């Protein structure tokens, strides 16, 4: 991009050298960054008033820089710093293009927004709307974000209006990320603007010759769209697997839970002595068998020795601990543990088998050693297929599938926190 011919003058207040960047016929004032004088560009740069003791805000951009935004050549001709009632500051760089006119580049907490005036008027009175209320302007729908009051605290360079220190305006912002709709009312005029959040600010910095590496934003801008380079693709990839795992869990639970081959109630006295059950027949030895032990334990525990027998021989043995406690504390009921236990095993071959069960140990209360009185019901199923691995797969893929959704919720909560407070979202 070729540089346009520049002109230099001296500030009519402090005689500091100032550069005119050819900001077009709408330029109304030239503002001295050294003494704060606001000079009338149409009346021989006579001083209109002064910004006394103004402090230059931080901005990576400088007046006179030239670069491209959205393929349009712009020159930065002016700078305005604003401050709201909570002392938050942001900087607007006024841009000029001989072919596309005027625009603004806003720098706030390392965020960049490119905006221009718009003729799109809201379809309702937006001055009394609540956050998140939707309205239309032009072909877009926006959510009302906030209203606030801000004042001018610094000016420099060429501007198309006359700025005075502490000039204040009522501001409204509404969002449809990456777009931001703004309304500014200074008491006599209302201006409407349409901004677009710049998602890749490095391209703008590079284009305008900002050589120093700029920090990444640490906050969420109102118009910043949500993107996640990891969680969104992960969620998308995990969804079909989560759906498959859920289907398998349901199918296995409904159709492959096994068929009952044995069901017997054992008395409390038989449990204490040890009892051998009636025979049961296994016809599908290649599949798992599921044993369910249901007791009537209450505020007690018991340890049960269980053996699988074929004839007079023990095939294998295992133990199951059952404990259950309940009570009322502070007017609230509570319980812990379970009255039931399950075990899974395989028998070596088809045929007739028996179970031998005995309560080997037990106690009432948490530390008691007196065996409690309880009967037990033993239920045995064959052909059982465990869905535990598919449940685990469902949990893992479900978490992955929800990761992007939850991440977006967290992102949105940070976006709206300043206007909705801690409890919303």
From TrEMBL:
InterPro entries, alphabetized: DUF4178
Transmembrane segments: 241-262, 389-411
Alphabetical keyword list: Membrane, Transmembrane, Transmembrane helix
DUF4178 domain residues: 62-199
Protein name: DUF4178 domain-containing protein
């Amino acid at each position: 991009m070729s540089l346009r011919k520049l002109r230099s003058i001296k500030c009519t207040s402090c005689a500091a050298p100032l550069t005119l960047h050819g900001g077009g016929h709408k330029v109304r004032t030239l503002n001295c960054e050294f003494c704060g004088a606001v000079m009338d560009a149409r009346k021989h740069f006579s001083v209109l008033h002064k910004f006394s003791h103004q402090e230059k805000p931080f901005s990576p951009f400088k007046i006179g820089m030239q670069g491209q935004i959205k393929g349009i050549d712009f020159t930065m001709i002016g700078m305005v710093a604003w401050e709201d009632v909570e002392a938050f500051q942001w900087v607007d760089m006024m841009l000029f293009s001989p072919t596309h006119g005027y625009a603004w580049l806003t720098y706030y907490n390392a965020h960049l927004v490119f905006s221009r005036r718009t003729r799109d008027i809201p379809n309702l009175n937006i001055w009394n709307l609540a956050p998140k209320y939707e309205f239309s302007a032009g072909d877009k729908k926006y959510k009302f974000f906030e209203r606030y009051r801000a004042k001018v605290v610094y000016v420099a360079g060429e501007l198309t209006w006359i700025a005075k220190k502490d000039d204040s305006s009522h501001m409204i912002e509404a969002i449809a990320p990456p777009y931001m709709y703004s309304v500014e009312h200074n008491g006599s005029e209302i201006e409407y603007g349409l901004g677009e959040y710049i998602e890749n600010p490095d391209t703008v910095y590079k284009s305008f010759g900002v050589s120093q590496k700029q920090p990444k934003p640490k906050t969420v801008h109102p118009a910043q769209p949500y993107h996640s380079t990891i969680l969104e693709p992960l969620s998308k990839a995990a969804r079909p697997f989560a759906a498959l795992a859920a289907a398998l869990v349901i199918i296995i639970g409904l159709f492959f839970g096994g068929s009952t081959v044995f069901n017997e109630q054992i008395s409390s006295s038989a449990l204490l002595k040890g009892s051998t059950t009636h025979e049961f027949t296994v016809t599908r030895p290649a599949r798992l068998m599921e044993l369910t032990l249901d007791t009537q334990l209450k505020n007690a525990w018991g340890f049960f020795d269980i053996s699988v027998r074929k004839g007079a021989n023990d095939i294998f043995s295992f133990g199951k601990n059952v404990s259950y406690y309940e009570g009322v504390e502070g007017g609230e009921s509570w319980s812990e543990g379970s009255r039931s236990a399950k075990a899974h095993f395989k028998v070596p071959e088809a045929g007739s088998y028996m179970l031998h069960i005995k309560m080997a140990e037990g106690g009432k209360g948490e530390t008691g050693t007196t065996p409690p009185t309880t009967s037990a019901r033993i239920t045995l199923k064959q052909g059982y297929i465990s869905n535990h691995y598919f449940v685990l797969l469902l949990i893992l893929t479900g978490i992955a599938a929800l990761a992007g959704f939850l991440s977006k919720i967290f992102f949105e909560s940070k976006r709206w926190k300043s206007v909705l407070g801690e409890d919303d979202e």
